[in-house]
Write a structure and sequence with these properties.
This protein is mostly helical. 63% of the residues lie in helices and 0% in strands. Helix 2 runs antiparallel to helix 8 (202-208). It is globular and about 60 Å long. The N and C termini lie far apart (54 Å).
Length: 488
C-alpha cells in the first residue's frame, strides 16, 4: 500500500502532526492570560473536539513512525531522507500553542523573576506581581509549581531571561521564542546522533531519536528543556568519541557542563566521557579531564548568570511531587499505607533504595564500559534509563534522555525495539491540555501491549543498528569529519 511506503509514511506523519497542532489550538495547554486573541480557552464541546482531533493525529503520527522504522530496519527506503521526514513532521508544530505541558510558562516566569530581582531558587513564580515581567505567564503555571523554586541550572535561566527580555514577557512571543530554543535543541540532537551513528545506520538512529513522536510532541510541541540537555550531552559525547584525547576531553567537558546547568542528570555523561578519554590516553587520570572542565564551566555559569549556586540545593524539589510513572514512589506509597497511617517515611525510604539500586546499575554498566565490553555511548543511555526508571519523580519525556543515546548506537536491536514500544505508549499518557487523565494510562497500556506483541512476532535481532565497541571506534576514526590539531 502506498500509505505505508516511505513517502506515504512521511505524509501520513505530517498529517498527524498537523492534526495535533489543529487540535491543540482548541485543547492545548492554553494560557490563562496573555493569549493575545490567538490562544484562547474554549467551551467544553470545542475543547473535547480539539482533544479528539489531537489524539487522532497522534495515532496517525505513531502509525507512520512505526511503519517507517520497520521499513528502515528492513533496509527499504532512502537512507538519507530521514531529515526530509523530520522537517515534514516537525514543521506543523512550530506555530502550535504549548502542548502536553504548562512547563514553558514556568520557564518564562522564572526568566522574568531573575530580571525583576527575585530569588528564583528561593521562591516560585507566585511572587510575580501585576506590572512585572512574566506575571501573565505565571498565571498559567501548573498548580504545584506555582510556589516551587526553579530546579534548573543557570545556563537555562540565562536563555529564559534572554527570551523574556527580547519579547517583553508577552506570552505568545515568549512561547515562540522558547520554541526556537527547542528547535535548536532538535537540530543539535540530529547533529550529534548522526555523528555518533555508523553511516549506514544514521537514518535508523534518527528514527528512534529525533523522529520519535515522544520527542516531537514534548520537545517541539511541549517545549521541554530536556531536549536541549540531551542535545548538549550527546554533542559532548561526540566530541569525546571522535576527537583526540585533550581537545575532545575539553570540548566534552564544556558541553556536558552546559547540559548540567540545564538539568543535573546530564552529569552522568562525565562518567562515560571520562571512560572514553581514559581508554584512549591509556591513563586513568586523563579521564578526569571532562569532569574538571565541566565543574569549571558550571561554576563560571553560576557566577556570570548572577543567580549563584542555589540550583545545587533545589535539585530535589521535583521529588516532592508524586507522579504515577515513578515505580519507587508508587511502591513506597502502597507499602506505607499497608504498614502505617503515615506513608511518607516508608515512601521516602523506598525512593532512596531505588536511587541506590540505580547507582549500582550505573556502576556495573560503567565498569563494563571501562573493560571495553559495552560501548560508552550505549552505557550512558542504559544508565540514564536506569536512573529514570528508579527515580522518585518520572515524567514521560524523561525516557528521551537515554533513548536518544541508545538510538545512536543500538537503534535496530532488541533494546531499540523495546524503547520504540515504550516511547509510543508514553506519548499517550499526557493529554494535549497537560493533564494526565485515566484514559491516557489505558491508551498507553494498550499501545505497549500491542507493541510488545508485535516485538514478539517480529523481533529485531542484534546487528541491525547495533555495533560492537571496536567496530564502532574504527568506523568513527575512518569517517571523522572534525579536524583535530595533530600536536594533541
Amino acid at each position: 500500500m502506498w500509505v505505508f511506503s516511505t513517502a506515504g509514511c512521511r505524509w501520513l506523519g505530517a498529517a498527524g502532526t498537523l492534526a495535533v497542532t489543529a487540535g491543540g489550538w482548541a485543547a492545548g495547554t492554553l494560557p490563562v492570560r496573555g493569549g493575545a486573541g490567538l490562544w484562547q480557552r474554549h467551551g467544553g464541546a470545542v475543547t473535547t473536539a480539539g482533544a479528539i482531533l489531537a489524539y487522532l493525529g497522534l495515532t496517525l503520527l505513531i502509525l507512520a513512525w512505526w511503519q517507517y522504522g520497520r521499513r528502515l530496519r528492513a533496509g527499504a527506503g532512502a537512507r538519507d531522507r530521514a531529515g526530509v521526514t523530520l522537517v515534514c513532521w516537525a514543521a506543523p508544530l512550530l506555530l502550535a500553542p504549548p502542548l502536553y505541558s504548562a512547563d514553558v510558562y514556568s520557564y518564562i516566569a522564572q526568566g522574568a523573576m531573575v530580571l525583576e530581582g527575585h530569588d528564583v531558587y528561593g521562591a516560585g513564580p507566585a511572587v510575580l506581581r501585576p506590572g512585572e515581567l512574566g506575571y501573565e505567564a505565571a498565571a498559567s503555571v501548573g498548580g504545584h509549581w506555582t510556589d516551587t523554586p526553579a530546579p534548573y541550572g543557570p545556563f537555562f535561566l540565562v536563555l529564559a531571561q534572554a527570551v523574556v527580555k527580547l519579547t517583553g514577557g508577552a506570552v505568545v512571543p515568549a512561547v515562540l521564542g522558547m520554541r526556537l530554543i527547542a528547535l535548536l535543541a532538535l537540530l543539535l540532537i540530529v547533529w550529534a546522533v548522526r555523528g555518533l551513528a555508523p553511516e549506514r545506520h544514521r537514518a535508523g538512529a534518527l528514527w528512534l531519536a529525533a523522529l520519535n513522536p515522544l520527542l516531537l510532541i514534548h520537545v517541539v510541541g511541549g517545549l521541554h528543556n530536556d531536549g536541549l540537555m540531551a542535545g548538549l550531552l550527546l554533542a559532548g559525547m561526540l566530541c569525546a568519541v571522535r576527537g583526540r584525547w585533550l581537545v575532545g576531553g575539553v570540548l566534552a567537558g564544556a558541553l556536558i557542563g552546559l547540559a548540567m546547568t540545564i538539568k543535573s542528570p546530564a552529569a552522568l555523561g562525565l562518567l562515560f566521557a571520562g571512560i572514553v578519554i581514559a581508554r584512549r590516553r591509556g591513563r586513568v587520570p586523563a579521564g578526569l579531564l571532562p569532569g574538571a572542565v565541566a565543574v569549571a564551566v558550571a561554576a563560571a555559569a553560576s557566577l556570570l548568570a548572577g543567580t549563584g549556586f542555589g540550583w545545587l540545593r533545589t535539585q530535589s524539589v521535583a521529588a516532592t511531587i508524586h507522579t504515577a510513572l515513578s515505580v519507587t514512589s508508587d511502591l513506597g506509597l502502597g507499602l506505607g499505607l499497608l504498614v502505617s497511617g503515615e506513608p511518607e517515611p516508608v515512601k521516602g525510604l523506598v525512593q532512596k533504595l531505588g536511587l541506590l539500586a540505580a547507582g549500582a546499575v550505573i556502576a556495573a554498566v560503567a565498569w563494563r564500559a571501562w573493560k571495553g565490553r559495552v560501548d560508552p555511548v550505549l552505557g550512558l543511555g542504559l544508565s540514564l534509563l536506569a536512573l529514570v526508571a528508579l527515580s522518585p519523580m518520572v515524567q514521560p519525556w524523561y525516557a528521551l534522555w537515554g533513548t536518544c543515546a541508545v538510538a545512536a548506537v543500538a537503534w535496530g536491536g532488541r533494546l531499540g525495539q523495546v524503547l520504540a514500544v515504550v516511547s509510543a505508549g508514553l506519548a499517550y499518557e499526557t493529554a494535549p491540555s497537560g493533564h494526565t487523565p485515566w484514559y491516557g494510562f489505558v491508551a498507553a497500556g494498550a499501545v505497549v501491549a500491542a507493541g510488545l506483541w508485535w516485538a514478539r512476532r517480529e523481533p529485531w535481532r542484534e546487528g541491525g543498528g547495533s555495533v560492537s565497541l571496536p567496530a564502532q571506534a574504527a568506523g568513527e576514526r575512518e569517517r571523522s569529519s572534525i579536524s583535530w590539531p595533530s600536536r594533541f
